[in-house]
Design goal:
alpha/beta; 8 helices; Rossmann fold; seven-stranded mixed beta sheet; globular; 232 residues; three-stranded antiparallel beta sheet; 34% helix
Length: 232
């Protein structure tokens, strides 16, 4: 399947990043803490202590650990073994009770109707339009009837419009095949990313969910926070 090919690339890239010592991979670092401020400043009002919270593509775990501090039972889903080990290292360092599970957000390894909140954090750029519908269907499956689907994203369609005629980019159907250089790796890793707007994301999500709220500019990079409820 196309998703499996893409996930093999994602594993390769994330594993390569995980091999490097970087402050973003250490939960208690000043840099990591600056990246999760939005949870204390914005997300807290949409989530309740005692509930279950899942992040799809949790990386080294900084966001689930911050949510856990607000009193929720948290689970991180991650496809990269290297990042899973980073998350486990952070879990041990801070005495967290978070559950870290290896898995794909195209086939989430959780039961139907078992979760209160699901966070999809900026990973929409890794999805084609059809693939994002798969994610939405999976989230719908695992959420309780009164659960919330939480998305963070940056609008980058204007960048796509600016770059679509450039010979430096191979853009087909909204996809740009980037070459990413990871420290300590000789060869660049080709990684496909897609161009999105909040409006088009909303169009796809609301096939299964009800729009609740949107906050624009929750951090310095003007990240958009989208909140959805599950259609009954």
């Amino acid at each position: 399947m196309k998703e499996q090919v893409k996930e093999e690339i994602a594993k390769k890239l994330s594993n390569a990043v995980a091999e490097n010592d970087h402050d973003l991979l250490i939960y208690k670092s000043e840099l990591s803490q600056s990246k999760v401020k939005w949870i204390d400043e914005y997300l807290y009002k949409y989530i309740k202590p005692g509930k279950t919270f899942v992040e799809l593509g949790c990386g080294s775990g900084k966001q689930i650990f911050k949510v856990e501090e607000l009193g929720l039972k948290v689970t991180g889903i991650e496809i990269s073994k290297g990042m899973i080990q980073r998350a486990i290292n952070n879990k041990i360092a801070i005495g967290s009770k978070a559950e870290i599970i290896e898995g794909s957000y195209f086939d989430i390894p959780l039961n139907n109707n078992s979760v209160d909140y699901v966070l999809f954090p900026k990973n929409i750029i890794e999805c084609s339009y059809n693939e994002f519908e798969i994610v939405c269907n999976e989230v719908y499956r695992i959420l309780y009837d009164d659960g919330k689907f939480i998305i963070t994203m940056n609008e980058n369609f204007e960048k796509y419009m600016d770059l679509r005629n450039s010979d430096k980019f191979n853009i087909i159907n909204g996809c740009n095949n980037n070459e990413i250089h990871v420290p300590n790796k000789i060869e660049a890793i080709e990684y496909p990313t897609y161009y999105w707007t909040a409006g088009f994301a909303n169009y796809i999500v609301t096939k299964k969910f009800v729009f609740n709220d949107m906050l624009d500019g929750i951090d310095a990079k003007k990240t958009i926070l989208l909140i959805y409820g599950k259609k009954k």
